[in-house]
# Entry
Amino acid sequence: MELSEILLTTILLYSTLDIIKVVIGVIVLLILYAFREQIIQALFFIGIYMGLGALIGWWLFDNASAGAVVGFCLAIFFGLRIVLSSFGAEYATTLEYAYYLFSIPFWFLNRLQHVLTEPWRYIFKTSWPSDGIKKVLRPLFYFIQILLYIAITPLRLLNAIIYNVLIYGITELYDLISEVIQPSQWAEGYADWWKWTYMFPWRVMKYPIFDGCLVLIEGAVWTIIDTIIPAITMYHGTDLLAGQCITGKKGSQWTDGTFTASHSSWGGIGVYFASRRSVARRYAEDPYRLNDHNPVMIVCRVSLGKIINYSLAPDYVYYHAGPNGNPAVLNRYAENNGYTTGEWWNERGGYWEYCMFDWKNRYNHPWRIRPIYVFNFRTGRAQHIETGLRHWLFSKIVIDDILESVWFTCIVILSFLVVIWLAIYGYKYFYNEFLWYYI
# Structure
């Protein structure tokens, strides 16, 4: 290779690295901008405790550093409620507070993925660009999203494992073991100690063993699918009756176990989700929506698909979002342009809303919404679902929907093959190539 070629290659390499650094720097700034209020509140709160600790440590023990460390620890210990509240957490019981504490790292990773998927959303809360500028920005941002999709693949995989395997597995195991110990069905021993005794082996075979195997398979398959097709953990507020019918194996009003599309005029006709738990709680506790006195939150993995931020849509579309809009216009624009989800900044409430559009008297694809557990705000803990959650992957309506799409059928088959390979050979590879090397 000639010297000129070496120099040209070096220049291109450094230019590429500089571009990557600039892109990373811009993303970091956007993240800081998105969390600016929470960061300022948390730093201010911690700073007061550290300052007081340093002053007391210097005055009493002539050691300001140790006092600052003690002040920091006290700020974390006593101030987590304030910090959690600044991130939108709301709780009424000790169990609910413990739930928020336990879920902080998982919540953060999920929120980070949500921000990195579309880091410019916080700049476009209102429709300030002209239609001409929006026409240029939409394809530009779509191209950038492809690059971000590649960059955050490890984060998507990590979140998929956490929610599809760890959290879904633990909460569903709780439901299945509860059915063994305290059955909810008359035929399996409910309120009858003699039937409880002789049906005990059947319940063990049916719930922890059979359903447990389906949970493991389902979690592993959806983990691979979520890594390929981006999914985010989102929240849907409702009441306990609706929550049990939507997520349980046996439906009454919602016999197919799926969500019912809302005809609200705010963001379109479809199923609504929030990226913050406090927003789901606000909807769940709305007296006009409650059928009982048990507001609940359905925590779901949602494959949002192609998203349209209404602030980047043409003005005639943007002005039909809100209380005085026409939802049919939003749905028609989405269907004509291949969008599956609408994203809208509710300025009055101060939060983002997401509407998965209804195209065929239901939301567009049932496989895109998968409940992983139900949280009861009245009791402050996960809600037990009788006989366990519906196995979404093995639901007829989802299977029919999958078979309608050749490319998605191929992804599901590939996911099953990867799971089978991991079950047969994966543990050997993990032991020989990883554990043996490090241990």
